[in-house]
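ok so i was messing around last nite and threw this chain in just to see what happens. nothing serious, just curious
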Amino acid sequence: MLGIISCIVIMTLKAQGILFPSQWYLEERNFNPLELYDLKIEYLIENSTKISSIEENIHAFKSDLPKMNMNLSNEITVLTAYFNIGSFAKGVFRRQYTPNIYYKWMSVFRNMTNNVIFYTNDMIAYKYFQKLRENLPKERTKIFLINKKELWSFKIHDIISQIYTQPDYPKHLPNTVVPGYSCAMHAKFELLNRVIRKNYFHTKYFMWLDIGLFRYLHDDPKFKLAKPTDFDDTKVAYSQVEYFQEDITYKDIIYDNMVWIGGASNLGKYDVLYKFTQEYLNFVNKSLFIKLISTDQQIIYGMYVDKHKPETKLQLYKSGWFELGYVCYAAGKN
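result:
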């Protein structure tokens, strides 16, 4: 049955003109599909010539932002990542999210003309993303293959795992069940913090974008994400999903899996977003200490119900999980 489903997926992608990543990679390397997924990712990384060592600690995130002496354009640097943590169930219906689903969603980056930075620990994703971006100017893309264990966000995996095994700790798939999923959500802010300091493309604005946000735009022609005309440079933008409740606690948010904003994308001027990443990572540290943690959506909600609220203000776009992404998409069309 699994083979039949895989064939259907491949045929569907071919019909859309999308080369299925596992397939072309397997053909190129003459791997047996069953053998491929038995390979250790550490083995693949050790034999790659494109390793990016980014090992840092929490203290590095607290450092002041280097002064930007270069001229900065008004364009957006888009940061995205895919960390292969295996398949996992999500939501009350326990839908399985597999690596192949994420490979398929990646295809939209073929048509995005923004400057894009991509991090992954997965060789298939790494090579596929190279393939997707090959028809765009080379200087518009940076792709890094890393060992996720170099990231602070994944170094706290075992601590998160211990928190999740506490008696009576809530079980919300995958948020409070799969430690690696939580790690991947926190990695967004660790990587944002890093790339803003590096500012490879000399842009004034930065955006985190989940791989799957534009999952329905596979057949769309070339497009560019742009800053909305009403964007406030002093704030960080997010999509609003639910109304903010002031009379709740951080524990309520974790235990009831509450959301206020959608974590699929954010947008900010480099210095404002940098400060927000610092505030976020500090709150993650605090969450580990009090043994209450979930994903970025719960962390951010918790930050703003906390008595010591962040200095950074949020600009919210209503309503829906992906609203901000599509507002930027529309702005780029104008």
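not much to say yet. Residues 1-49 have pLDDT under 50 and may be disordered.
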